[in-house]
Specification:
It holds the Pfam family ADH_N. Keywords: NADP, Oxidoreductase. This is Quinone oxidoreductase. Residues 11-322 form the Enoyl reductase (ER) domain. The protein has ten helices and 15 strands. The protein is globular and about 60 Å long. It is of the alpha/beta class. The protein folds into two domains: 2-121 and 269-323, Quinone Oxidoreductase, Chain A, domain 1 (Alpha-Beta Complex), CATH 3.90.180; 139-262, NAD(P)-binding Rossmann-like Domain (Rossmann fold, 3-Layer(aba) Sandwich), CATH 3.40.50. Strands 3, 4, 5, 6, 7, 14 and 15 form a seven-stranded mixed beta sheet that branches. Helix content is 30%, strand content 26%. It starts with a strand and ends with a strand.
């Protein structure tokens, strides 16, 4: 028997229950892994709160790292003792142990420890598809990034700078502005006292930007459109302030034949070969030092409810890891 967090109804952090669960033997194409570290992400809050309508009762969390304990029939690429991590999986990472499809598991290379892996898989793979696939950032680009001091933001800022781009980032206070600047952001806009649209126009001499990466949603999205140059991309990959209102597509024509997309990691990483290629690129930029993964908060896994409350209250920066 092992323990895991489950929730039986949507709601606040208090709905998370630490329960004893029984794991069977891994089936064909499955492995049983023992977690050492689990990543905390805003999508966990969406799932727990019922935003995405997860079938209940449910586990929680889709990012973690640990050790393979046992593999099921037909599994040839993994063996007990292998260090693995994942960032795109069925829910259930908030657990001491779990069963997981092996096509979601990625072997960890030497030089990347378990805590770092748990902090970077979902966020780092998200950044990979955002800046290497959804809109391919290139040298000389100036881009706009909301929540530049968040977990995705700190990775994206560094990686985009490594590619030769100039990053304009929005943050809520001066402390987060300093943090974002330490991680690739060239210009940090404190949105609580500055109009970010006006600042983007000023910083780009009126040319605006080819892409906006927006994980905030309701509070920023329409203004994000005003920051885009003609034919620009509004990439909405989260909604920490709430869902955006229904969009009049005529606005996209009025504002310069803009593109809007709502991508997810599950789509980009659905095929095993794509997931492996994305992970290899992520591992490479981390091992090279071009992207540094900083874990700014850790909590025992049993304190997941407090971690959720702190994340929702924007008390955290960068990556947060739950230690098993």
């Amino acid at each position: 028997m092992t323990y895991a967090f489950r929730f039986h109804q949507p709601g606040g952090p208090e709905v998370l229950k630490w329960e004893e669960v029984k794991l069977g033997k891994p089936g064909a194409g499955e492995a049983r892994i023992r977690h050492t570290a689990v990543g905390l992400n805003f999508v966990d809050i969406y799932n727990r709160a019922g935003v995405y309508g997860v079938p209940l009762p449910s586990g929680l969390g889709s990012e973690g790292a640990g050790v393979v304990e046992e593999v099921g029939p037909g599994v040839a690429d993994l063996k007990p003792g292998d260090r693995v991590a994942y960032g795109s999986s069925p829910l259930g990472a908030y657990a001491e142990e779990r069963l997981i499809p092996v096509d979601r598991l990625l072997k960890l290379p030497d030089g990347i420890d378990d805590k770092t892996a748990a902090a970077m898989m979902l966020k780092g793979l998200t950044v990979q598809y955002l800046i290497r696939q959804t809109y391919r950032v290139k040298s000389g680009d100036t881009i706009l990034l909301h929540a530049a001091a968040g977990g995705v933001g700190l990775i994206l800022g560094q990686w985009a700078k490594h590619l030769g781009a100039t990053v304009i980032g929005t943050v809520s206070n001066d402390e987060k502005a300093a943090l974002a600047k330490q991680h690739g952001t060239t210009h940090a806009i404190v949105y609580t006292r500055e109009d970010f649209v006006a600042r983007v126009k000023e910083l780009t001499a009126g040319h605006l930007v080819p892409v906006v990466y927006d994980s905030v949603g309701k509070d920023t999205f329409l203004k994000s459109l005003d920051c885009l140059a003609p034919l620009g991309f509004a990439v909405l990959f989260g909604q920490s302030s709430g869902a955006i209102d229904p969009l009049n597509l005529g606005l996209l024509a009025q504002k310069g034949s803009l593109y809007v997309t709502r991508p997810t990691l599950n789509t980009y990483g659905a095929k095993r070969e794509n997931l492996v290629a994305m992970a290899n690129e992520l591992f490479e930029v981390v091992k090279s030092g071009a992207v540094k993964i900083e874990i700014n908060q850790t909590y025992p896994l049993k304190d997941a409810a407090k971690a959720h409350a702190d994340l929702a209250a924007r008390k955290t920066t960068g990556s947060t890891v739950l230690l098993v």
